[in-house]
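Quick one:
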Amino acid sequence: MHQRLLKLKELLEPFGITRFYTDDWGAYERHLPPEQHTIGKANTQKIERKHLTLRTRIKRLVRKTICFSKLDKMHDIVIGLFINRYEFGVLI
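Output:
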């Protein structure tokens, strides 16, 4: 299971992720630097709110809609466009 954590950490590196908010699973403590790792739910609400907004506004992520795409590339494009608009106010 910790291989998945290491793979995820590797995938997040190019984005400059510097903080990790997790539960108390031991692998987090072993593989994340203490100055970047916070255990608890203090920031969970903000993160979950963003996830809910993403799922609500991008209907392509819901399989039962007519907009659902089977191509991963299309999901990546649509999610990227949404994040640019929602997070950064960039119209593309």
